[in-house]
Design a protein that fits this description.
heterotrimer, A alpha+beta (339), B alpha+beta (745), C alpha/beta (171), A: 339 residues, alpha+beta, Enolase-like, domain 1, 4-stranded antiparallel β-sheet, 27% helix, 20% strand, globular, C: 171 residues, alpha/beta, Ubiquitin-like (UB roll), DNA polymerase, domain 1, 2 domains, 6-stranded mixed β-sheet, 6 strands
Chain lengths: 339, 745, 171
Amino acid sequence: MNNFEYRRASDTKDAINLIHQQEKSKFLAGGTNLIDLWKYNITNPTSLVDINHIAELSEIKALPDGGVRLGAGFKNADTAYHPIIEQQYPLLSKAILAGASAQIRNMASNGGNLLQRTRCYYFYDPEVPCNKRVPGSGCPAKLGYNRIHAILGTSEQCIAVFPSDMCIALAALDALVNVEGPEGKRTINFADFHRLPDDRPDLDNTLKPGELIISIDLPEKGFTTNYSYLKLRDRHSYAFALVSVATAMELDGDTIKDIRIALGGVAHKPWRSKEAEDFLIGKNASAENFSTAADLILKDAKGFGHNDFKIKLAKKAIIRNGLMALNPDTQLPGAKPSA
Amino acid sequence: MDVNKTVGQPISRLEGKLKVTGAAKYAAEYQVENLLHGYVVNSPITKGKIINIDIAKALAIPGVIDVLSHKNRTKLAWFDVQYTDMDAPPGTVFKPLHNENILYNGQPIALVVAEDFETARYASTQITFEFEQEAFETNLQNNTEKGRPAKKGFATALKPPPPPPTGDFDKAYGQAAVKVEAEFKHGTEHHNPIELFATTTVYKGKGKLTIYDKTQGTINNQLYVANIFGLHYKDVRVLAPFVGGGFGAGLRPQYQLFLCVMAALHLKRNVRVVLDRKQMFSFSHRPPAIQKMRFASDINGRMTALGHSVYAETSNFEDYTEPTANWSHKLYPSPNTLFEHNIVPLDVYTPMDMRAPGGSTALHAIECTMDELAHKLKIDPLELRLINYSEMDPSSKKPYTSKALRECYLQAAEKFGWSNRNPEPRATMRGNKLVGYGMATGIWDAFQFPARVEAMITKDGKLVLNNATTDIGTGTLTVMTQIAADELGLSLEEVDFQYGDSKKPFSMFQGGSAITSSTGVAIVVAAKALRKKLLKKAAQMENSPFKNASDEEVIFNGGNLHLKNEPGTYVSLKNIIAFNKGKAIKTTNMGKPHMLKLRKYSLATHSASFVEVEVDQDLGTVTVTRAVTAVAAGKIINPKTAKSQISGSMIWGISKALHEETIMDDHFGKYINTNLGEYHIPVHADIGQLDVIFAEERDELINEIGTKGVGEIGLVGMPAAISNAIFNATGKRIYKLPIHFDELI
Amino acid sequence: MKRTETQTPSHLQQGTCAVNIKVNGEEKTLYVQPWVSLLDGLRDHLNLTGTKKGCDHGQCGACTIICDDKRILSCLTLAVMKNGSEITTVEGIAHGEELHPIQQAFIDHDAFQCGYCTPGQLCSAIGLIKEGKANSREEVKELMSGNLCRCGANIGIIDAIMQVKDGGNNE
């Protein structure tokens, strides 16, 4: 709960320069997670660089290749309700609207959504050890209460999950993340943006120090006919996913031509399995085939006690969401299971 | 002549406009000159001692005034009894900043006082403590061998231990035709009113304090402050005109009051202390409990044995109990009973009454066990209740002053469509969803506390009433105004009920669904005395037609005193006061329960809840699609606010059944989901259709107005009704709350 | 137009930012440190205590206000971030003595008990109606789920919004 300086950046160059001037500087966009973490004494920035007034970050525009570029500063709600997104990327729209609350979606930026930190109880309590917060201090979640924790891609050091809904859809859509830093611009494949905890659970993603997310590119293929986002949680809205599934399909009759299945609430990053998706291509979109694919996705899944149920639940969710994607009209507000 | 009655009318809350415009002020919202802000520091360890505190860094921050801890606190009352409060269980009251000992995780250990809130908050992170840690125990299940009956004390009057055994339980249970044995587990819950606990203390000099506090008992906290800090009772004024929810958490003084007053006296300044949400998990809570049920019946469903034994958490310093094993035999006759309530002291803060304490935990176990028994007997669950219906209280063998539970069962079942229930579990589908019906009974106390009310007619002919009670959102202001208006034949606009102030005549804390009957009766008693006085004064007026009129021969209506037989003959209340030289005519009277008469009776409210759930057949997700609760609670003063009390507590039932739990990590001895993101209470999306029925229940015995209270009865039946509906939907019995959807896959 | 300025305590002069905001139609200048939340700025510095603090972490919705025509959480917003913004709080919803229809509907439907979450519910409801994304009752419930009510006045709240949203037609 330290005090900090506040500076407004006028453009991206300014923002990157300002962040460079002070150690422990942070970019401030919606603030919905950063201010929260600061108040819990978990992050202690000495300086905040407000990027809310940079015009370049607040755009949404069509790209010449048929895709769409989402400004990092564009708000989650504006994105979800934007006609281009509703029409061309309905999966993304549904996933965004399944997250947080209307107020938070009005505040939260697209770039910030990618940078959400885990909701692990132990990460959020500065009085207890946590390898993500204080590297080397230990992970109480493994032997503690781990209902909300990961079943895939965990490490000895960390079993935290990444809490975003939006990013599960972005992972399914093979988005690209455009970033800019002191060393210039680069583009990161969405699959490579977030990382597994391994022995560096303090690092959530592959951004380099001082790099700013500028925009997110969505490839042309938006899966407008067969898609579904399913979110399972302890209340019907305004709770983080225990398991969520984004499914996007391209069908030829009953046969799957292309499919993406991304899982949320199960790992340190949005989870996809090439093996499972490859298995489904050329097959019928049936419960049986989704079931086999689910087994492939979850074959290395491991529970820690309280979260053992996620393995079973994730399988059932993958199957159901596959079937829901056949008829996207079955989607209910809040990404609840179909009626 | 026609007298317009407001009692029984659905009057909108009289303070409504203040609440929808933001004008209603809560404890942290009073603008006070030169206000200092306190921020509390809590213990990160669970048990042990503070060895050292380094406050130098905090004190060096510009704007920091002081840091109070056990090292430099002011001299305080010495004896435990001086720290006690009206709701204190037997034991040794927790004394904040008393010494270096840490008794529980989150215990307040210091208060930073600064010129502004942000500086106090920042400085609170700049204090370093050294602790010596000791081993602790926070797990109920692992410590049941420590279970023992609670010590008796002042609080025992409202929370009696379970009745002694009757018949030969072991034999009867052993030989019973049909029996069910089950063990139920309930986790910790925290009240979590949305308003944070807060106190603003105005230092008036010479030991005088005006305190705006979040509390359910202004006088309770006034006594507490005066006793501890050695102040004159009359010099301490506690005000709580608006309270942003209590649910029991405000029945005892919370530590922010203590710390705020201490700082104000120490610094001779005005001070405000507001807790944060995490700190809202650092005091009272509903205790976790383990309940072992053994119920048996004959083949026709008549109960032959009721066994209910309870292990519930308490702290290591106070013996908190809540009536839990007491309830089944108040509903169902049985010749053989065995009830036990054991408390298990652990290294936690003392639990505390939380909306329907004991009852909501107990009735879940009792009514789920009854449901299981009905299933075994192949008797409809409602039918089983009717087979065992008792007009009198089997546990005390006394008649109820009134009991319209049968009407509740029948009316709610009718409205719900219970007759369409398929008794076969997992047999009814709606698309992907399994549909289940469940029902349960509710029973709760009908308390009345002594209360004093001052009533007066002012020179403008208005009725002003004074009583120290709070209105925590229950509708107390509106309901009291209605009762008073009818007593004097006035319109609601002509009545001014003033409350939420310890300077006003006595009220107990607002708990136990008791205030309508307590302050309400005092109003009736005071109004009667006031009518007498007004008549007496009117009779003294020149050529008064009331000279020889008795109480029975007059009527108060429309701001006038009339002769009953000659309604055209009247005098206005204004004129009576004018005749009294413009001086208000007033009276102060006590309303109290008629103990001698009521000793022969049992007193209770009853309810019946019917619930429909949908459970996703693959994913287990549960939705309470609709519920009907019928309540028998005597006379309903205001059906609008009473309905909100019931539907609100039905939502508490949904929350208890499916959502809320505080998770203790026993490795650290601390709660880990201490925020509203992870401590789930239902959101709008969780709430389906809820219907409330008030069964007609005339009670001429219970008190002058025939009321019983509606604050808690709507909650008690719901968790079991939901659990039973889930069984009907899925065939799965989950013997714990909350039920997580993944347990239904 | 009246302009109100707040005082800064002497120990905080250094690093203080001037934040110009229009609150409920009035121009205000707040002199605050960068770490003062908009919620604390409104409550402690402008004495607009109608906006409530329930969790201070974006988990209850009690602090919801309308900022530049959108409902947001003032607890997770720094006051300095909103320099130049236009803000409506619960104190600014009514037109003088005449209540906004949603305020009257809350009273009529008994959509509150303790009243503490009410300002946030009201501002959120106004934001929801303005957004125009909620048609069915289910959608209203979903899009109001960022506002918790511990008293359990949920039914009245949704009834009130349905009535006002559809211009008095509660279907």
